[in-house]
UniProtKB/TrEMBL annotation:
PROSITE patterns reported for this sequence: GLYCOSYL_HYDROL_F2_1, GLYCOSYL_HYDROL_F2_2
Official protein name in the record: Beta-galactosidase
Keywords: Glycosidase, Hydrolase
Cited Pfam families: Bgal_small_N, Glyco_hydro_2_C, Glyco_hydro_2_N, LacZ_4
The reaction(s) this protein catalyses: Hydrolysis of terminal non-reducing beta-D-galactose residues in beta-D-galactosides
Span list, region Disordered: 1-30
GO biological process, one term: lactose catabolic process
InterPro entries membership: B-gal_small/dom_5, Bact_Beta-galactosidase, Beta-gal/glucu_dom_sf, Gal_mutarotase_sf_dom, Galactose-bd-like_sf, GH, GH-type_carb-bd, Glyco_hydro_2
Organism: Leifsonia poae
Cited SUPFAM superfamilies: (Trans)glycosidases, beta-Galactosidase/glucuronidase domain, Galactose mutarotase-like, Galactose-binding domain-like
Amino acid sequence: MTIASTSSVPYLADTAPGRGPRRPPRSWLHSDAPTLSLDGAWLFRLSPVAPADEDLADDGFDDSDWDTIPVPSHWVLEGDGAYGRPIYTNVQFPFPIDPPHVPDENPTGDYRRRFTLPADWSAAERILLRFDGVESLYKVWLNGIEIGIATGSRLATEFDVTDAVRPGENVVAVRVHQWSPASYLEDQDQWWLPGIFRSVTLVARPAGGIDDVWLRAGYRDGAGTLDAELTADPSAFPITLSVPELGVERTWQTPDEVGPIAVDTVEPWSAERPLLYEATVSSAAETITLRVGFRTVEIRGDRFLVNGNRVVFHGMNRHEAHPDRGRVFDEEHARADLARMKQFNVNAIRTSHYPPHPRLLDLADELGFWVILECDLETHGFEKGGWRGNPSDDPAWRDAYLDRIRRTVERDKNHPSIVMWSLGNESGTGANLAAMSAWVHARDTGRPVHYEGDYTGEYTDVYSRMYPTVIETAEIGTDGSRAPLLNCTPAQGARQRTKPFILCEYAHAMGNGPGALDQYEQLVHEHPRLHGGFVWEWRDHGIRTTTPEGAEFFAYGGDFGEVVHDGNFVMDGMVLSNDVPTPGLHEYKAVVQPIRFVFDVDAVALTNLRHSADASDLRFRWRVEHDGAVVRTGELDVPELEAGATVLVPLPEVPVAHDAETWLTVDAELRDDVAWAPAGHIVASAQVDRSARIPVPAAPTVPLRSGDAAAPASGTLTLGPASFENGRLVSLGGRPVSGPRLELWRAPTDNDEGAAYSDPTGSDGSVVGVSSASLWREQGLDRLTRRLVSSSGDATSLRTVERVSAANALASVSVESTWTLNDGELELRVEILPSAGWNTVWPRIGVRFDLPDDATAVDGASWFGLGPLESYPDSIHAAAVGRYESTVDDLSADYARPQETGHRSAVRRLTLRAGEADVLALTFLPDTRGRRPGFTLSRHTPQQLAAAGHPFELPASDTTYLFVDAAQHGLGSRACGPDVWPEYALRPEARTLRIRFA
Ligand code: GAL
């Protein structure tokens, strides 16, 4: 093999989408024509550069010393690093921007395998070699004969190999280059993962077969239409379409006869009731099986409708990501993921930013999702040069663009779930995109075209944006608003306001967050032009990796020694790499739940917010709890509840406790098992407070002694369960405990570290400011020091005053802690008073208690308050008042990069556990404004969390830390979106904590 530079490989500077006998793109069909899977072990050799000679092509080439590699797979995920490592970049190209050239250092995988042509294929008219996905450019030979070249990593190619295939044994050779001109069109925010990563199949096409079928099934007012388009040789006729369940059986004798069929009565398909009818299309030689869903997509004015009803997308951007397999499809994993989406009230998927494995769409049809199917296209890296040289507007790339959209639409056109085509993502704008759109409009009149980058709406049918603020989103939805729209003149803006609007991306789910989901959701109800959106994104793309010491973790950018990378920006999912839903996903589920509950004194108004399904699949169970203990349960008698309707349902009589809080909870749960969840799964839930007024015990008064410092608390002091040495707490309930110690710092979330979108109330998200986290560090919130100003104590009380401040800081906080023993009850009151001169938001206002491991570690907690999961001021809808318990470890979410986690809000009582024993019981009293603190229990300090890039970097712990927070800053989604909304932003302020200990 000769290693040579790329310049001697001319096709590596060719913008053509492919060469050779590539068959016209067609649907990915389930057919009874014979196929031979070529998946499995292939022989493999990797070169660090693109070799100049093509020795692998030779029929008799000696490949006996090659390795074997599975197909499908990505070579960088095989062989434990033997074949290179994955690279993660968001916008950046991991090679010089020098289109259409790519560097000579171009990892190239050569693949070979032998197969035997099935003996009974001799009757086949043509034989095709089909590749469902290869990244990024590949050249194919069969039996030494050059077949062709293809690109379009996430698109299928079928080569006609009839003339090259031979009876008996055959040898197929494939050369795959990691980098190619096509890489410039595939700059999606994800791992670069080369290889043959989807199936390879040999396909026999029978004489008289049906090459392609498109069944367009429309629906209107109870009736359907079936419009067939067939691609078949006239000799294949007669062809019969049959849908037994509908009594449809139509035989066309000639191509000319093929035409629409009216179906009198049919059930429509929707994401809520995904009703599919099995259909067959058959000639004498071939039968194709399809599942038909009847639905009509249309835009009327600024409304996007399916079957006449407005669609609200509660969607997720979905990448193909698997912690071990990368983008290699795993049907069981994908099905479980989609079921999980349904369980969390997700009803839509944008296939960001390329067509998924074709089976995914079968699953979407079956489980019910509105799908925006996106083409494999992104040229984001050209933004760096002001989009200079962007392929989207360069005629040299026009064929490649048109080729991509054709292959996208043709492959997946039969799926009822697909309600919109998307041209791609973040590719600037230009004539090639407009040409793609024109092609789609001509080919498929039944689905609109989406592309976010068409800001002024020159060639797309819906208005789409990513990450606008709440204010801007509202302005897009407001009739008559003259607020300017991004990159639009007033006239262009006015035009955009005549179209349906979607948030193709919003609520960047990186790390702890996003906040403000409820604010976006609220807008959908206020402005019918707004059709919801797609959270960025469904799952983290972490790659399961093991440290040399054997600790498993999920790798992100930089973990494989990449030259350029974008760190953990690839960990921005609602589901962690190990399939665990984040608290953010629970929040999402609660915010978008399809039933709205509005409680009155003795009735609840239930509104069905669904697209078209009634609520007969739901049962409404209620329960009354006294301080979290269930005292009565029952079921509401809910009459028929059509989509869009509201019914008033009487509530049961609620027994109100006099010494406990009384809460009524109603859960709407599935009556029966469905494909994605068992009966009893809770779809929607709401709570209402029915408590009698419970008086808050007054704070014990401690006489003010003038000049506290004059009577310093020295020596040992015991107040009930607490012991103090020289004015400082040393034990509680017999266990070593220190504190309270003011804590204003939290380990910055990914959103706290975000620097864009500094003004959440503005309408220009692009304003870049300074991240909250850097302001916090600048002010030293992570390194506060203390000075005891005064202390005084007697037999029943102890008071200390501390001044807390950071090195080189003028601003300070005064912390006055007063312990009082009253009738045997110990109360701590902490007054936190900021000085003047604090001028940013604070992460938290709280105190920390250290509970060093004694004979046992504090390893669990139970509480009455909001739970069960963590909550923050702008992400609190999933939390309900109740009694909960958890281990310390389970209180934290395993974000890929350690950060703030675990805050439980509005807590009334907390019991800490060590093993089986309750070691400390705390009661939190509300402040004079009724606000209750939250708690966090962690094996690490925020300083330790903030210093770790991955969970395995956290130091071994010998202490449990309890934080009692009067307040926490909100979350926002500033990692790539708006900062925390002012109402949930924590400004320095005076707060009081009152804690009783038992
Ligand atoms: C968008 C982009 C996504 C992703 C996201 C940030 O601009 O379309 O692919 O990069 O930002 O995570």
